[in-house]
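I hope you will forgive my troubling you with a question about protein structure. I should value your view on which stretches of the chain appear to form regular backbone elements. Here, with my thanks, is the record as I have it:
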Amino acid sequence: MANKRTALVILNWNGKHLLGRFLPGIIKHTPPEVDIIVADNASQDDSLLFLKEHFPGIRIIEMKENQGFAGGYNKALESVDADYFILLNSDIEVSEAWIEPCISLLDAYPDVAAVQPKIRSLENKAFFEYAGAAGGFLDHFGYPFCRGRIFNHLEKDTGQYDDFGEVFWATGAAMFVRADAFRDAGGFDASFFAHMEEVDLCWRLQNSGYKIFYCPQSVVYHLGGGSLPKANPQKTFYNFRNSLWMLAKQLPPRFFYARLLPRLLRTR
């Protein structure tokens, strides 16, 4: 890796069981020059005590209230001094040498602001995983989708997406991002609280002239539903609300309503 400072930040909320399961592998497969930080989003379980007892070498950022994924990361990253941030969900299993390919890509392409690895399912490692798969895009109506995942259909990974290159959005489950680009863009929109904030951020980064890339040489495995299960109504609410809010922010009114009407008709 180039001589730039990198910080890996895991946002935790009531995830003691996830930290015990996944943090040892993250430590094992993360180069010693990368700072590993757990930002605790006002957990009500014993996460903090568990970390202090079992991982005393890990830096902890303690927050006094749960500000969601978006606000939580914004607050935590204010106190992290690094050139590159790695934002990693607490329910991710990493693989050997998962960091170097993405950092090397950022080093080689200064116009790339964010990179995501290949995201496979932890429960069925031959298949892609819902949250990111092989890089994200938006369809004509503003619905997000990924190569390797359309709605709830997941493809088997047979190497069909082993070409690195530009995508529209990189998943927040495992995002490598330039710290200065993140800060210049204003970070995540905290009003989203959770879900779709990474799509909104990537859209804003592109509006600033940056590109978003996918790097298949890096592979991680996502459990999914670590904080909110897929069937949780709150998760559905955030996804739908934030999708519409993002389009309203990014599109001129006539383009927004041109996409809104077909979406409303599809729900009838």
About this structure: The chain has one domain: 6-266. The longest strand covers residues 211-222. The chain has a mean pLDDT of 90.
